[in-house]
Write a structure and sequence with these properties.
- With about 450 residues, the chain is mostly helical.
- Among the domains are: about 180 residues, Tetratricopeptide repeat domain (Serine Threonine Protein Phosphatase 5, Tetratricopeptide repeat, Alpha Horseshoe); about 60 residues, Serine Threonine Protein Phosphatase 5, Tetratricopeptide repeat, CATH 1.25.40.
- The protein has 23 helices and no strands.
- The protein starts with a helix and ends with a helix.
- The relative contact order is 0.04.
Length: about 450
C-alpha cells in the first residue's frame, strides 16, 4: 500500500484550521486507496464529530438522506459509508460504516481492524445497537482465530462484547448460546496451553506476562489487589498516556476502593481525550452521585443541612438519569432509575410513565409492577393498584421476604379500602400464616372477621 503519511498530515492541518470539508475530501481519497488504514479513521471520527456538533443536530432533508450506492462492490459500499460518516457524524452513519467494514473484511482481511475500531467507537457513543455488538464480537473472535498464537485478549473481548449484548437483550436468539460456546472454547484453550519455554529468560517473560494479564483481569476485592492493578496501569500509561481506556480502568479501580478524588482525576483525563465518549460521561455522573452520598453521611441525621443535602442528591440523580434516558432511550435500566427517583420526589405521573415502559423488561418487571402499584395508589386508582400488586406477588420468589410481605399487606389494605372484605380476609390470612406479627395484619384480620 502507498504511504499516506503526507496526506494524513495535510488532512490533520486542515482539521486544526477548521477546514473540515477539505480534510474529509482528502480522507475520502485515502480510504479509496487504503481502506484498511486505521489511522485514517482515527482522524475521520473527530472530524465527523466536530461537523455534527457545529450542525447542532440540525441537518437539511437532503443532507440527512443517504444516497444509494449503485454497486455491489463491498469496497465501494464501504467507501460510501465512510464518507457518509464523515459528513454526518451521527450514530446511525457510524453503525452503517461498521456493517460495511465487516462486509468488506470478508475479502480484505486487514479491514477487520477498521471494523473493530469503528465498532468500539460506536459503543462509546453510549447508543445501543444489537447488530453492531454482534458484529464486533465476531470480529474479535475472528482476530482470535486468525492469530497464530491464539490472541487470548481478543477472545476475552469477544466474550465480553457478546456478554454485554446478552445482558442488554436477554431474549436475543443467539447471544446466550454463543457466550456459552465461547466460554467453553476459552476453557479448552487454557487447558491446552502451557507450552514449554525455550530458555530461562523466555520462561520468566512468559510468567511475568501471564501474571500481568491475571492481575489486570481480576476482580478487585482488597486494597492490595487495587494497588497491584494500579501499578501495572501506571506502567502502561507511561508508555501510552493518550489511551483513554487505561485512564478509565484506573479510575474504576480507584473508585472501587473509595478513592473518589483520584477516580475523578482519571475520568477527567479520559474525558479530555474523548469528550464525546458517553460511557465516561456516565462514570463521571456516577462519581458525582457517590460524592454527594459521602457528604450526606458526614452530616448530622435529621438536621436541616442533611435535609438540604438529601434534596440536592435526589435532584442530581433525577437530572443524571434524565440525561441518560435522552441519550440512550432503549436502556430500561436508566428509565427505571429515573422512575424510582421521580417517585421519591413525589413526581408520581412522571414515575408511572417510566414504570409503564420498564415493566416490559424481564429484569425489571417485578419491581416495575410494584412501582406502578404505588403510583396508582397515590393517585387513588385503587383498582389499578390492586391489579399491579396481583401481577407483582407471583414474581416474588420468596414469600417470606420483606418485599413479598409488604406487597401482600398493601394488597389486603387496598381490598379493605374498597370494601372488598372477603378478598382482604384472604390476603390477611395468607400474611398472618407467614408472619403473625407483621404490622397490624392480625388485628385487621380479627376486625374484618368480627
Amino acid at each position: 500500500m502507498p504511504d499516506l503519511t503526507k496526506h494524513l498530515t495535510r488532512a490533520k492541518q486542515l482539521f486544526d484550521k477548521g477546514a473540515c470539508d477539505d480534510a474529509l475530501t482528502i480522507l475520502g481519497e485515502c480510504i479509496e486507496v487504503d481502506p484498511a488504514n486505521v489511522e485514517i479513521f482515527k482522524l475521520l471520527i473527530p472530524i465527523s464529530r466536530r461537523k455534527a456538533k457545529e450542525a447542532g443536530g440540525k441537518t437539511s432533508l437532503f443532507g440527512s438522506l443517504k444516497m444509494p450506492v449503485m454497486s455491489n462492490d463491498p469496497h465501494k459500499q464501504f467507501v460510501a459509508a465512510a464518507k457518509q460518516l464523515g459528513k454526518m457524524g451521527d450514530p446511525k452513519s457510524l453503525a452503517a460504516a461498521v456493517e460495511a467494514a465487516v462486509k468488506l473484511s470478508a475479502t480484505v482481511k486487514p479491514v477487520a481492524d477498521v471494523a473493530i475500531f469503528l465498532g468500539e467507537e460506536f459503543r462509546h457513543t453510549g447508543m445501543f445497537n444489537d447488530k453492531v455488538l454482534w458484529q464486533l464480537a465476531h470480529m474479535y473472535m475472528e482476530r482470535y482465530n486468525n492469530s497464530g498464537k491464539k490472541d487470548e485478549a481478543a477472545l476475552e473481548k469477544a466474550i465480553a462484547t457478546m456478554t454485554s449484548l446478552e445482558k442488554a437483550m436477554p431474549n436475543h436468539a443467539e447471544a446466550g448460546r454463543t457466550v456459552k460456546n465461547w466460554h467453553a472454547m476459552q476453557s479448552m484453550q487454557r487447558r491446552n496451553t502451557g507450552g514449554q519455554a525455550t530458555d530461562y529468560r523466555s520462561q520468566v517473560a512468559s510468567t511475568d506476562a501471564a501474571r500481568r494479564q491475571e492481575v489486570l483481569n481480576r476482580n478487585v476485592r482488597t486494597l492490595e489487589d487495587a494497588r497491584e492493578v494500579i501499578k501495572y496501569l501506571d506502567e502502561d500509561l507511561q508508555k501510552s498516556p493518550g489511551d483513554k481506556f487505561l485512564w478509565v480502568k484506573k479510575g474504576d479501580v480507584h473508585r472501587r476502593i473509595s478513592e473518589l478524588a483520584l477516580a475523578r482525576t482519571c475520568y477527567e483525563k479520559a474525558q479530555v481525550l474523548d469528550q464525546h465518549d458517553f460511557t465516561i460521561t456516565m462514570k463521571m455522573g456516577d462519581l458525582r452521585i457517590e460524592e454527594a452520598k459521602e457528604r450526606l453521611k458526614g452530616l448530622p441525621a435529621g438536621g436541616p443541612e442533611a435535609a438540604a443535602a438529601r434534596k440536592q442528591l435526589l435532584d442530581m440523580e433525577i437530572a443524571e438519569y434524565r440525561t441518560r434516558v435522552e441519550r440512550q432511550p432503549t436502556d430500561m435500566g436508566h428509565r427505571f432509575n429515573l422512575a424510582r427517583n421521580l417517585l421519591t420526589a413525589g413526581e408520581v405521573d412522571g414515575a408511572a410513565a417510566e414504570f409503564q415502559k420498564t415493566v416490559n423488561d424481564p429484569r425489571l418487571r417485578k419491581s416495575s409492577h410494584r412501582g406502578l402499584a404505588i403510583c396508582f395508589h397515590k393517585r387513588n386508582l385503587l383498582d389499578l393498584a390492586i391489579q399491579q400488586y396481583k401481577l407483582f406477588l407471583p414474581l416474588v420468589e420468596d414469600e417470606q421476604s420483606d418485599e413479598a410481605k409488604e406487597g401482600r399487606f398493601q394488597l389486603a389494605r387496598l381490598y379493605e379500602d374498597r370494601g372488598q372484605t372477603a378478598e382482604a380476609i384472604v390476603e390477611y390470612e395468607k400474611l398472618v400464616t407467614l408472619d403473625f406479627g407483621y404490622k397490624d395484619a392480625a388485628a385487621r384480620l380479627s376486625t374484618l372477621r368480627g
